[in-house]
Amino acid sequence: MKFFKVSVLVCLFFFMIACEEGATRFIPVDETDDGSSEITDDSDSTDPANPTTEPTDEPTTEPTTEPTTEPTTEPTTEPTTEPTTEPTDEPTTEPTEQGGGAKEACYNIYDCYSKCQDNSCAQACYNNGEPEGQSIFMEMYNCWMTNCKNAQTSTDFSNCVADNCYSETAACGILGDDPTDPTDPTDPTDPTGLTDEEKCDAAGGSWEVMTSKCYKTVSCDAKPANSEWNGDSSYSVEYDVDAEAWNPGPAYATNFGDGDPEPCQFKCKADYTYTGAECKKKSQCSAVFDGSSSKIAVQHNDLLNLDSETWTIEAWIKQGDDDVANYAIHPILRKGGTSSDAAYYISGFYTLNNGAGYGLSSYQQYTYSQGYGPQAQTKTAELKKNMSNVPYSAEWTHIAMVQHKEQQNWWSTYKLLVFVNGEQISSQDYENTYAVPTTKTVAEALYIGVNLSTGKHFKGLIDSIKISSVDKYSENFTPGKFLPDDDTIAFWDFNGSTEESKNNMTITSAENITYSDDCL
């Protein structure tokens, strides 16, 4: 709705309506040969009630008899000041230019008219006006009376004028703004009449004074569970005040991405992987050893002394290539970690001190009986084998150490066998191959990934370790993933926890161990 000087304009209009036909008294409708104007009236001009004196240019007194709803008398003489030309009800010509002086002349008539309390005053205001102002005033008046005469309230009248008589009213200078100016907030083509800043506020945006633009912050759609934002969680959009629309619409959709961050991009948290629809916890299946402080300790258990005639110790490892040092020992598993003579151990690959190649180290300390009767005695021996014919591999590698029993005609012999990826690379006879070797009893814990007597640590991944009470391998084989079975003494499957899987092989500590989804 257009805003203009409503209070005065409305008073003017209802002053006209209240006086009914009296409002038309100031309108000259006839011209005489001598150029004077006759004021029409539907009452008798010789009515004795008419005043006998002529009004001055600005009446100083009001008629002694107030007009009724329709006045019965009118002045008997013309006002002393007459317009040089007098328009008819519909002006025969329009001023060639309705700006500057014409608009001011019309406004002067309007301003004078709005202060009147009676018809005589109103008539004088019109008669004293400039001809070009009278013409514009008449156009405005005729438009009001034609279109808005039946308005019941000031609001109805204001709406009517804005919709039907905007240009006529503006030409008289009452609106005060140029209706042809597209920046004018009262432009008749703009039904809201709001400034750009007001449009911005109505649209829910924030007006930026420095750029004279409207923006709002849009929050990204929700991201999946177990994820975090890889970029910003919101973005800005600009409001086009001319089109009255946000442009562009939602510019960013929530999506997965762990590269260069952008708004509404998420990535899965650590230990989670994206499946295309959700961030799912990674399948933890191997323990990570850092090569300097990582270690796992398993409390002592008599079953770990390997007192059966046959047994198998095996592990899946993936050793870091930067952990291969000159003649260094990288312990994988060791029973009796603090003493210099462990019951058994298996150590990872190392470089021979002469640089000849890579090797693997295995060790067992055992006892056996020799002789019979009074001459019988128990002896202690050890097997230690550094296998220089084992090439290093950065891939998953299966290692197995087996105490093997081989049945002869009426007796049995025993050997220590070592396999790498199912291929036998070492065979070692015991000192007395016919006596049953028994692994030395050590009441200390079993350690994984560390040799406490030397301070050496393993670096890399260990997927699983299994100790069995039988000689599982006696010839070349194809290794597979470990599973506990009836012959299992101990089994550790490092799948994200340090819980033992069989025979109460309690892990008492796991220091600086993390878990990986890099596995078999």
Features:
15% helix, alpha+beta, rod-shaped, eight-stranded antiparallel sheet, 30% strand, disordered N terminus, 520 residues, single chain
Structure summary, number of beta strands:
29
User: Which range does the strand content fall in?
Assistant: 25-35%
Average residue pLDDT: 75
Amount of helix: 10-25%
**What structural class results from the helix and strand content?**
alpha+beta
Question: Rough shape?
Answer: rod-shaped
Distance between the termini: 76 Å
* Count of individual helical segments: 7
Describe this structure in words.
This protein is an alpha+beta fold. The protein contains seven helices and 29 strands. The chain has helices spanning 6-18, 101-114, 119-127, 131-147, 154-164, 166-171, 196-202, and strands spanning 30-31, 37-38, 206-208, 213-219, 227-229, 234-240, 245-247, 255-256, 265-268, 272-274, 279-281, 286-290, 295-298, 311-319, 331-335, 344-351, 358-370, 377-387, 397-407, 412-420, 423-429, 438-439, 446-448, 450-451, 456-457, 459-468, 488-493, 507-511, 514-516. Strands 12, 14, 19, 20, 21, 26, 27 and 29 form an eight-stranded antiparallel β-sheet that branches. Strand 24 and strand 25 (456-457) form a beta hairpin. Helix 2 runs antiparallel to helix 3. The chain is rod-shaped and about 160 Å long.
